Amino acid sequence: MTTTAVPVAAAGARERLDAATAHLDPPLAVVDLDALDANAADLVRRAGGRPIRVASKSVRCRALLRRVLDRPGFAGVLAYTLAEALWLAGGNDPVSTDVLVGYPSVDRAALRRLGGDEQLADRVTLMVDSVAHLDLLDAVAPPATRPVVQVCLDLDASWRVGPAHVGVRRSPVHSPAEAAALARAVVARPGVRLVGVMAYEAQVAGVGDAPAGRPVRGLAVRGMQRASVRELAVRRAAAVAAVREVADLRFVNGGGTGSLERTAAEESVTELAAGSGLYSPTLFDGYRSFRGRPAALFALPVTRRPAAGVVTVAGGGWIASGPPGRDRSPTPVHPAGLHLLASEGAGEVQTPLRGPGTAELAIGDRVWFRHAKAGELCERVDELHLVQGDGLADVVVSDVVPTYRGQGRSFG
Fold first, then answer.
1. What are the tens digits of pLDDT across the range 105-126?
2. Could you give the count of Cα atoms lying within 13 Å of 45 in the half-sphere of its Cβ?
């Protein structure tokens, strides 16, 4: 599957970023609004008319969530904790009045708050994959004392071949029969309403099918994904049909940045989810179907030149979550021709870099990096400098906005 690709980066990207932030001292993080908007437009194009629910864990900035949600084609938020969902949906100026919590919550304080606020109960939908989640909700906020709470059933979208499990370990609800049984249990409970089904196919949406320099792996991944997509389309349609016999669903959510076209082709799916494609981190470079423009970057200052062909920058140990490996490390991208040292990697307080790009770097210059995962960059900085403008003459930092961290919020 191939589509028209979005340019990876405009010519003169380094010069543009340096010009916009010349008055600032690194370390600093930027979001290139021109790239963000281009990525958002490409996500909408790939969604083929299905609304996209924004995955907030990949953005982690209220101002940028609002910017994306203001665009046609985006509707609602997929939050990553209940506490975050309440923060985004609460008050008179919510980021969204339609927030789905992407994972089950056992946060008793947040459940108690949800059960005590009719407005929040109308705006936030909980995720469940077992009756134990309903039991906990009832224990914290008994049905007789709370407004009706909306819930979504989490369907496991992994591909199972005999004893093999391909995909992430999420919900225990895999078959249409299991989905129907849980749906009946939800409907039988007082004080809850089943409004949605979600199934996230991580083995397709989150695994690049064209890893750089690994053609054999690419072939294997593409074969796995073709088989997984065929199996899931049939099983998801059957599960949704079985659940619809029990409840009147408001939405069926599926997909992710890496699988929008494939998931949108399924008639049973009414909406998609995406977030990482807005920032386009390095883990999303290896896909044949799309190519994003790097929108979120961070800069570190050069503090040493310890040897010929080597510079050292301050900080840099911003390793992404997931299985340990080189692909989880930040990648130096500007100037070109830099790489981490295998013996040291991205250090806690300093990071040495080697390569021909060091020849043009002096003490005090900056090196621009891309993070491996999208929103996790925001856990390292309090603010994002929003860069805007086409050429060197008019590029500026048009605004400075707080990350979740900058607003004193930590949601795990």
1. 999 999 999 999 999 999 999 9
2. 15
